[in-house]
Amino acid sequence: MTSETAIKALVVDDEVIPNSLVQLQLEQLGYTVIGNAYDGPEAVRLTQELRPDVVVMDLRMMDPATGKDDHTAGLKAAAAIQQVCPTPVVVVTAYESPELVQQASSIGVGAYLVKPTRERDLERAITIALARFRDFMELQRLHTELELYNAELDAFAGTVAQGLKAPLKKIIAYIETLLREPQADSDQTVAEQIRVINRESYTILNISKELLLRARLRQTGNIEVQPLDMSEIVKSALRRLQGLRDWQEIEVSLPGSWPTAEGYEPWVEEIWVSLLSNAVSHGLPEQPPFRIEIGAETLPQNMIRFWVRDFGPGVPEERQRQLFTPLTPLSMAQGTGVGLDLVQYLVERMGGVVGVISPVPASDPTAACGSLFFFTLPESANAYPPYRNNV
Questions:
Q1: What is the Cα 234 distance to its own chain's centre?
Q2: Which single residue of 154, 261, 270, 319 could bond 304 by disulfide (Cβ 3.0 to 4.6 Å)?
Q3: Would you say the CATH fold of 151-378 matches that of 8-117?
Q4: Which of 112, 116, 104 minimizes the C-alpha distance to 128?
Q5: CATH architecture assigned to 8-117
Q6: CATH superfamily entry for domain 151-378
Q7: How far apart are CA 97 and CA 59, in angstroms?
């Protein structure tokens, strides 16, 4: 074992000779002894201070608070160490029993060593303790992650159920009316009912797409980045906004052509849906005309910035700093796109950044300046043919 890879050890034993003997054995094996302690509380303190890779600790030691011999002092110290500074622990004991093994394992003790210690057994015990500790910490991490994931799923399931309830009730009510009394309403009334059914169907579609995105996000490793046909992606995102109230009254301005960026198409569509729905929900002025501008521009360092501009009241500076920060463990689904915190995550995974400019500088001082939400993506070397929008 070389000095660069030497494992740092802390030795704990209330008897000087056994303490020194274990230190000597460790050094002969190539480990680095960075400290020694003579009771449990001192072992906890030195573990926090010195951060050893492993603690070799006697089971039975004197309790400095009472001055009496404590046959579980090592286990108590090991438990305290796992609480304040998780570290692999090897317990040295004069005897071994099933009860001791069970108790020690429950608090994270990695291995046992029966006195008198031998170098070969000491090395094997440390190797086992290090391996078990890595497994133990990984299990703890997975357990914590699973708890958070389950909490998110519970919250999202409730949100989805609540979000689906209203559009489904409308769809069912109108369809039942059409089926029950097909000739009772005028053509204009029937057409309006069909438009509502169509609009609410898009709401359900958006919720289901967000649910699938979140479900798959944790399983997504390397994404397949490819040149994006942004005109088609934006058209698809605009179709999904049919569920927004009064969407037909909003004028959407599109660029004449799109530069070609690289990204993951399903994520990019969700980003557009989120930014556009955010503009509709929060960026419209009180009185018409209602309009939104969508644009793109090429930046230095082979990046492209895409943006959505509204002409509403704008976003206060103190609020801007919170826009892309999750306010709850889970951004609540509203059926019109993922939350802005998830937008930031998706964009950063594709190599870009997100941001907001508000108010937007305007040539007319009396005009509502609104906000400009943007995201960037790497420029693609393989461009799609220029597309002239006709929406």
A1: 26
A2: 261
A3: no
A4: 112
A5: 3-Layer(aba) Sandwich (3.40)
A6: Histidine kinase-like ATPase, C-terminal domain (3.30.565.10)
A7: 13
* pLDDT values of the chain reduced to their tens digit, one per residue, 391 residues: 444 468 999 999 998 998 999 999 999 999 999 999 999 999 999 999 999 999 999 988 998 989 898 888 888 999 999 889 999 999 888 776 777 777 777 777 888 788 888 889 999 989 988 988 888 888 888 888 788 777 766 666 666 666 677 777 777 777 777 777 666 667 777 777 777 777 677 667 666 666 666 666 655 566 788 999 999 999 988 888 876 666 778 889 999 999 999 999 988 998 998 899 888 877 777 777 788 999 999 999 999 999 999 888 888 777 777 777 654 433 433 434 457 878 888 899 899 999 998 887 665 545 557 889 999 999 987 655 443 333 3
For the chain, the maximum distance between any two Cα atoms, rounded to a whole number of angstroms, is 101
d(CA 334, CA 338): 8
Structure tokens at 129: 């303790």
Fill in the amino acid letter for 298: T
**Which amino acid, one-letter code, is at 210?**
E
Whole-angstrom distance, CA of residue 384 vs CA of residue 268 = 16
| Boundaries of every domain in the chain | 8-117, 151-378
Q: Where are the alpha helices (DSSP H) in the chain?
A: 16-29, 40-50, 73-84, 98-106, 119-180, 187-217, 230-239, 265-282, 317-320, 340-349
Return the SS3 of 61. strand
